[in-house]
Amino acid sequence: MYLCQMLKEEVLQEVEKGCMLPLMEEFYTIQGEGFHKGTAAYFIRIGGCDVGCHWCDVKESWNADLHPPTVIASIVDNAVKYSDTIVVTGGEPLMWNMFPLTKSLKERGLQTHIETSGAYELTGVWDWICLSPKKNKLPTSAVQAVAHELKAIVYNKHDLIFAEEQAALVNEDCILYLQPEWSVRDKVVPLIVDYVMKNPKWKVSLQTHKYLNIP
Ligand code: SF4
Predict the structure, then answer these.
(1) Residue 101 included in any domain
(2) Burial class (CB in 10 A: 0-12, 13-18, 19+), 198
(3) Smallest Cα–Cα separation from 138: which of 152, 155, 157?
(4) Which CATH number covers residue 55?
(5) Is residue 6 in a domain?
(6) Which of 35, 54, 62, 85 has the smallest number of Cβ neighbours within 10 A?
(7) 8 lies in some domain
């Protein structure tokens, strides 16, 4: 019993340091969204998220305890077999210390991309940061300052106002995308198309992987 408790605490310490991460799934596919859409990439999905978007399509990621703490060396060894481009997603990956994982990926010559709500402290070494801000838990200014793309999800008309508020807070080189929330796409695509034509600093992003029926 005592030994079990010791092992559990050691694992928790490793997770705390970012040397182990609650891995939900990892898979090789095509990045469907945003600037890098169409690019083959290896996805690493980390469990744990407390942002609570009601339309979230990966709710099973929320409880980190359901996903086994996994040593980063094994995650990196798998990733390197598949692709030069690695997308770390979640869940909310910035709930964890991303420095050890990204340092190991960089040491193997891989490109590190992250998909984040930006709601937590920025950790890790990133070649590409996709910030997808959420009203429930706003992004930190540290993430806004360095994000390469802002991907605002549009579920209803009010989300366009939120998107503009967030666009005013990101750096001037950040590429701006409006993306329909999948379950209401038929309703919001016309809104987005009209908005982008009137406000061409924005671009349309679609979840093309869902049209392609791939993960
Ligand atoms: S931030 Fe992402 S993972 Fe978390 S609830 Fe929202 S959509 Fe889901």
Answers:
(1) yes
(2) exposed
(3) 152
(4) 3.20.20.70
(5) no
(6) 54
(7) no
Domain that holds residue 118: 20-211
Find the 42 Cα to ligand 1 centroid distance in Å: 20
Contact (Cβ atoms closer than 8 angstroms) between residue 85 and residue 35: no
Name the pLDDT band for 1 (thresholds 50, 70, 90).
Answer: low
Closest alpha carbon to 20 in 122, 94, 100, 116: 100
Q: Dump pLDDT digits (tens) for 112-122.
A: 999 999 999 99
What's the structural domain count of the chain? 1
Query: Which pLDDT tens digit goes with each residue over 121-148?
Result: 999 999 999 999 999 999 999 999 999 9
How far apart, in Å, do the first and last CA atoms of the chain sit? 41
How much distance in Å is there from the Cα of 152 to the middle of ligand 1? 12
Ligand 1 contact via 56 beta carbon (within 6 Å): yes
**Is 117 close to ligand 1, i.e. is its CB under 6 Å away?**
yes
Q: Which two tokens stand for residue 211?
A: 């049209």
Whether 159 is covered by a domain: the verdict is yes
